[in-house]
Design a protein that fits this description.
This protein has 400 residues and is mainly α. It has helices spanning 6-14, 20-32, 36-44, 52-63, 95-102, 115-135, 145-155, 158-171, 182-188, 190-198, 200-205, 215-219, 229-241, 246-256, 259-263, 270-277, 286-299, 316-319, 325-328, 331-360, 362-383, 385-399.
Length: 400
Amino acid sequence: MEGLDEPVLLEKTTSPAASHADKERAILEACRWRNLDALRALAESPGGFITDKTRQQAWPVLLGLPSGDGETPTIPLGQATEAGPWKELPRHRDEDQVQLDVNRAFIYYPENQNDAELARQKDELSALIVEVLRRNPYLCYFQGYHDICQVFLLVLPPPIRAPAVARLSALRIRDFMLPSLGPAVRQLRLIPDILRASDPRLWHHLSGTEPFFALAGTLTMYAHDITTLGEISRLFDVLLAREPVFSVYMFAAIVRSRREELFDTPHDEPEMLHSILCKLPRPLDLEALISAARALFDAHPPERLPAWRTISRASVLRTARHPGVCATQSMADGRGFFEKQVTELRWLKRRDKACELLWQHRRPVRTVGIAVLVGVAAAVFRRYPGVLAYIYGIVSRWVR
């Protein structure tokens, strides 16, 4: 992009001798030019975006919002589906559950809060979530969504929190906000494929363990399991800069990092293996895991994984397959993809019910099916007698 010497920028920021000040300047320069490739490289480099000050500039750009400095955005932003004061909008169906989860928020961070400060932050968190849901009523709340929103509330300034979370919801974690967890579970099926391709011995050891152990981590962008604001903010840097499927590779890297511990547990004890895998390792070496996830992604891209064929074309994994795509999509795009996925889910539900019904009545169905085939054959032979003679000739030669 004109005015930005990208090779020098990346050389500066990835050099071991680069200071935090140099890197902060590079981040702000990339935000100024909305250089998503440079931001991705900076997010993946050690330390990510370093401070909340730079995150307040970078995260909105990665999500397709203005960078927070008042400049006019150069790409389509998209808008929430409802305008006007959100408190005057109809109540969302999931607000009771929102309040239950908000009551359990802010357990680990921020630290040293008094009761009044904690109550204020819970009110702000509830308002943030409810505003996003009321403005986008088609979205379905899921338990753990408040963990994600809590991070955005603590990092971003108030004016851009709701727009940022709305775009995140519709364009990056949309699969989790559908009326069914089916699409989220299908994402997890990619993890065994990554392990089989990269570490066959470990894959075989875990072959009796379903990948549901990764649900809480991937569903909440790891915000449910990481207990320090610095670590989860740093991980959000790379998750927002990369394509949504990168989160799955991140969990595969976490699994591989625990090889020795997992091999110490017998393969025929899936419950014990599940118990180990559903908790993140301590301490958590985020820089090493991010590097390992990037290497896994490069060596085994999703298109090579068998489970990729089961991922809906309207899934965020496909509609935002490449980094930076989310920043160019609109909220209307997100809603359109959402509706396509809902239609697919309804069709799959009807198909499964039909298959179940056929299985329950398989003997009568078999009899009816044979009768129908005989009737159709008789009608064909009556209309085309030559077909019967032709078949008879083939059978006769085969019998001889």
